Automatic annotation (TrEMBL), chain A:
Coiled coil: none annotated. The keyword Transport applies. Gene3D superfamilies: P-loop containing nucleotide triphosphate hydrolases (3.40.50.300). This is Monosaccharide ABC transporter ATP-binding protein, CUT2 family. It comes from Mycetocola miduiensis. SMART domains: AAA. The lineage of its organism: Bacteria, Bacillati, Actinomycetota, Actinomycetes, Micrococcales. InterPro entries: AAA+_ATPase, ABC_carbohydrate_import_ATPase, ABC_transporter-like_ATP-bd, ABC_transporter-like_CS, P-loop_NTPase.
UniProtKB/TrEMBL annotation, chain B:
GO terms for cellular component: plasma membrane. It is a multi-pass membrane protein. Its main location: membrane. It comes from Mycetocola miduiensis. Keywords: Cell membrane, Membrane, Transmembrane, Transmembrane helix. GO terms for molecular function: transmembrane transporter activity. It comes from the Bacteria. It holds the Pfam family BPD_transp_2. This is Monosaccharide ABC transporter membrane protein, CUT2 family. The chain crosses the membrane at residues 39-58, 70-88, 95-116, 122-143, 150-170, 190-211, 241-261, 273-291.
Length: 506, 347
């Protein structure tokens, strides 16, 4: 079945290499994409996926190797040449213009006009056809793109690719900005495309998605192909992780440590209510316990964490840490009581990207290192080095700007921040978003270790599997209500989804 | 394979094949891109200006007295610019500094205040000027932080309002400073250097320590770099912003004292357009307008560049309009350079 000789490939990449300023980003990548298939390209951050995409899109020129398009050698000199061949690329940061309508966006750069006058009605009609092909004929072509959700902006981007009569569409982590409902819609659209004979190169590091949408997989590690054209259905996840990371991942989730029944209650949430989001929320977390909030995006789970932390002001109800009630709407009070929070958007809410690691690590505690208001940066760096060692944070240099770190290591900065603080209650919102598979296991192990040391942890994740694998106890959230409270071992992913679906139907 | 033994290394380094040295920019690039390099550029610009001054005006330019003149010229706007540096570092802006300074000169030189100062001590005038500045800054800060008004608009309102208040109080008349104690102090000199310059130096040193070595400075930089992350880390962002604007008002108050000493008069027109000179000096100095990075040394160099430029034009009896064009060019070039550094940082 995995035999390229029979079906002649649409695109073939043979051993391309690319060096930037002495750094070899690609060291020999092979790829063979057939018409009408979804070909997944897997790789950790920094493996060379982006360079590969940009080479196919004509942004970069390979130093060596060949690119064959429909069996003929081709040099893709620039992005226009790629479009002319029929290769369209959807980057993670969608290149749509918010102020223009859908039709204007789609025909941007190749407008239909007579004597300089735009043929607006014509463009709108063609746009409606393209949107219909993508199963979104209901969106009016004259809608301003700025009004659209991220998911619909992707549709516009795909319609634009179709308007160029693309034969191959490269999608760079398209699901990163979508919630699970939108992802299934995206998959429907992708199947629509492939049924029309269009090939899709799907870049992602979410293995679950690749299982759902992919036909074949190629894996890149450190700029080199470690596998090319594996059939998705015949390749176990364990093998894929090994191909990506070069090592065995025996068990991603660490074993839970039973929480003693007499462990003290550290966090108590009583009748907590945030107007428009959730109401009458009650739960407690004991020392050493990990409680997971499972639910879809929009279920109110992030708002719950933010309200507990005081980042949003509760309408009514109370939060207490170790028996002491916190002032509503005060992050400072929560931090003082020993609570820590790792926000959903790590880069915009958690870190000061331009500042060095140590200043990010001590962001909640630099006052403690100071005497009479005078900072003691040496002590801050020493404390940071201690955390770097304990958490195996890399690079192990406190002076490095946070921006230069990988997602997993940026997450470790936030954990280090709260470890130095001596946090007893830790709230984690999407702790592994943007963290690649290899580093996830490490984050999981760290979270479990913190619990074992007596921290009470509340975790929110859009990956239900993660919530279940990591937690001792799970609260299933739907529309701001707790639909069920279960031991994590007593429920599985489909059980959670069942509850969520029933809850929203009711 | 070391790669397999240490999994995290593979995660951290984008390309394990490349050594850490190749990932980092070369030492030369790092220094030029860093704060030292940026200040070095300003020092070079200043040296060039001195050479130009010496060539065009010769002895009239290159003598100690003229250097002191330049420094005295720089001192008042310098003190204001230092306050502005904190505000801009915190990702804010304070357009009101000039008119707040004007208001402070008027209030501190009111007949009633001067009379009370004569009966007690000239220090009273100093305290009044500082208090006016601090209160104006407090109002700015509260409106911005707790009223959620954009800093540009809030301080623009203060610019207009404070100027109007100063006119109302003074009846648009110039109020002469008669208090001898005050004049002796502010017009005095120490070791041959006028007191105005000493005040500038002391404020500069204090500000450098405050920005670079204290928790106050760290909070300022953190809030400017990412206010939301700072808030979620437990920093009281609103309260701190109020203090930053109060600091800016306070430096306007200090500048008012210096202005009263230099001109021996308080008037509502003092400090007109000073806010623009201050912002220009701060930005030319290398403080990022988007916040998160501030440099006191850069600001001082920025102020010195502008005051040296003014001095050269005066010494050569050149048109002030041409000077304004030169100033404009310097600002544009500095911002262009700054953007290049900024994009290099974010790459």
């Amino acid at each position: 079945m995995i035999d390229d000789d029979h079906a002649s490939p649409l695109l073939e990449v043979r051993g391309i290499t690319k060096t930037f300023a002495g750094v070899q980003a690609l060291k020999g990548v092979h790829l063979s994409v057939r018409a009408g298939e979804v070909h997944c390209v897997l790789g950790q951050n920094g493996a060379g996926k982006s360079t590969l995409i940009k080479t196919l899109a004509g942004v970069h020129q390979p130093d060596a190797g060949e690119i064959l398009w429909r069996g003929e050698t081709n040099t893709i000199a620039d992005p226009l040449a790629a479009i002319a061949l029929g290769i369209a690329t959807m980057y993670q940061e969608l290149d749509v213009v918010d102020g223009l309508t859908i039709a204007e966006n789609i025909f941007l750069g190749h407008e239909h006009s007579t004597g300089g006058m735009l043929k607006v009605a014509h463009a709108n009609r063609l746009t409606r056809e393209l949107l219909t092909r993508l199963g979104h004929g209901d969106i009016p072509p004259t809608t301003e793109v700025g009004q659209l959700s991220a998911a619909n902006k992707q549709i516009v981007s795909m319609a634009r690719a179709l308007s160029h009569e693309a034969k191959l569409i490269i999608m760079d982590e398209p699901s990163a900005v979508l919630d699970s409902g939108e992802v299934s819609n995206l998959f429907r659209v992708i199947r629509e495309l492939t049924s029309q004979g269009i090939a899709v190169v799907y870049i992602s590091h979410r293995l679950e998605e690749i299982r759902q949408i992919g036909d074949r997989i190629s894996v890149i590690k450190d700029g080199r192909s470690t596998a090319s054209g594996l059939a998705v259905s015949e390749t176990p996840t364990r093998d894929l992780i090994k191909l990506m990371t070069g090592r065995e991942v025996a068990n991603v989730f660490p074993d839970a440590v039973p929480v003693p029944a007499n462990a003290p209650i550290l966090l108590e949430v009583t009748h907590l209510h945030l107007r428009g989001h959730f109401s009458d929320l009650d739960f407690t977390v004991r020392a050493g316990e990990i409680v997971g909030l499972a639910g879809l995006v929009g279920s109110g789970r992030s708002e719950i964490l933010e309200t507990i932390y005081g980042a949003r002001k509760a309408t009514s109800g109370s939060v207490s840490v170790q028996g002491k009630v916190l002032r509503a709407g005060s992050v400072a009070a929560a931090v003082e009581s020993g609570m820590g929070f790792s926000p959903e958007e790590r880069k915009s809410q958690g870190l000061i990207l331009g500042e060095p690691i140590y200043k990010n690590v001590t962001l909640s505690t630099f006052g403690r290192f100071a005497r009479g208001g005078l900072l003691n940066e040496g002590a801050e760096k020493d404390a940071t080095r201690g955390q770097i060692e304990a958490l195996e944070l890399r690079p192990a240099d406190p002076e490095r700007p946070a921006r230069t770190l990988s997602g997993g290591n940026q997450q470790k900065i936030l954990l280090a921040r709260w470890l130095i603080h001596g946090t007893r209650v830790l709230l984690l919102d999407e702790p592994t978003r943007g963290v690649d598979v290899g580093a996830r296991a490490e984050i999981y192990a760290l979270i479990r270790r913190l619990a074992a040391e007596g921290t009470a942890i509340v975790i929110v994740s859009s990956e239900i599997e993660e919530v279940l694998g990591l937690s001792d106890r799970v609260l299933v959230i739907g529309d701001g209500d707790v639909l069920a409270e279960k031991n994590a071992s007593d429920i599985d992913e489909s059980g959670v989804l069942d509850l969520v679906m029933k809850g929203s139907a009711a | 394979m070391s790669e397999q033994k240490s999994p995290i290394l593979a995660d951290a380094a984008p390309l394990p094949g490349a050594s850490h040295q190749t990932e980092r920019p070369s030492a030369v690039k790092r220094i030029l891109g860093g704060s030292v390099g940026r200040n070095l550029g300003l020092v070079i610009a200043l040296v060039v200006l001195f050479i130009i001054g010496t060539i065009t005006a010769g002895e009239r330019f290159a003598n100690i007295d003229n250097v002191l003149t330049i420094l005295r010229l720089a001192s008042i706007i310098g003190v204001i610019s230092i306050g502005m540096t904190f505000v801009i570092t915190a990702a804010g802006i304070d357009l009101s500094v000039g008119s707040v300074m004007g208001l402070a000169t008027v209030v501190a030189s009111l007949t009633a205040v001067q009379l009370a100062a004569t009966q007690t001590s000239w220090i009273l005038m100093v305290v009044v000027a500082l208090a006016v500045g601090a209160v104006a800054g407090l109002v700015n800060g509260v409106v911005i932080a707790y009223g959620n008004v954009v800093a540009f608009m809030a301080t623009l309102a203060m610019l207009v309002g404070a100027r109007g208040l100063a006119e109302l109080i003074s009846g648009r008349r110039t109020q002469i400073v008669t208090n001898t104690g005050f004049l002796e102090f502010t017009r005095g000199s120490l070791l041959g250097v006028p007191l105005l310059i000493w005040i500038f130096v002391i404020v500069a040193i204090a500000a450098w320590i405050l920005l670079n070595r204290t928790t106050f400075g760290r909070r300022t930089v953190a809030i400017g770099g990412n206010a939301e992350a700072s808030r979620l880390a437990g920093i009281k962002v609103k309260r701190h912003l109020v203090m930053v604007y109060m600091l800016s008002g306070l430096t306007a108050g200090i500048a008012a004292i210096m202005m009263l000493g230099r001109t021996t008069a308080g008037t509502s027109t003092h400090g007109t357009l000073y806010e623009l000179d201050a912002i220009a000096a701060v930005v030319v100095g290398g403080t990022l307008l988007i916040g998160g990075r501030g440099t006191i040394v850069g600001t001082i160099l920025g102020v010195l560049i502008f005051s040296t430029l003014t001095n050269i034009f005066t010494q050569n009896n050149l048109d002030t309009s041409v000077q304004a064009i030169a100033k404009g060019l310097i600002i544009v070039i500095a911002v262009l350079l700054q953007q290049r550094f900024a994009t290099r940082d974010t790459r």
